[in-house]
Amino acid sequence: METKDPLAEYRSKRNFSRTREPRGTASSQGLQQGAQPRFVIQKHKASTLHYDLRLEVDGVLKSWAVPKGPSTNPRDKRLAVPTEDHPIDYIDFEGTIPENEYGAGTVLVWDRGHYRNLKDKPIAQAIEEGQAEIWLEGEKVQGGYALVRTGTGNDVRWLLIKMKDEKADARRNPVSTEPASVITGHTIEQMETSTQEG
Ligand code: MN
Fold first, then answer.
1. Which residue of 79, 145, 171, 182 has the lowest C-beta tally within 10 Å?
2. pTM for the full model?
3. In the chain, what are the domain boundaries?
4. 4-13: average pLDDT
């Protein structure tokens, strides 16, 4: 019987009296029957800019930090560094994490929507095995994406790769052409300006 709190690492890294990030619910709960799982890609201007891809899986958000963000070109292999599971509530988090706190910097919801598992096994198992394939239905990013773990030992790394399908498009580059939040329409720079007022 698995009793380990999947959010223990998430909570241990944060001081919730200082950051406005959600603490998350105590117990993980699965999806309502028939509900499609969601994903989010959060643009995060921390010490280095990156894009956090999070997938709703078994009551938590499985997470990877993608330094260059997702590509729509199947020739690109984007490094995706696994990070700790986040609470489901994090899916619509935007705002500024205070200086000196973990992940200090500004976060916006760069894209969001539902996803489908393209493998004929549970998504949690596919991730565990390092061979996940998902279909994203976002506002900026759509179609099949593979999340694959490659290498061995110290060279293990994950890659996020656009699959070849009708949504693949080598000419698009939404990371640079569509920088704003899908919730507010504001960019990171606009958010930073408004938090500096007063
Ligand atoms: Mn991040």
1. 171
2. 0.92
3. 8-18+33-197
4. 89
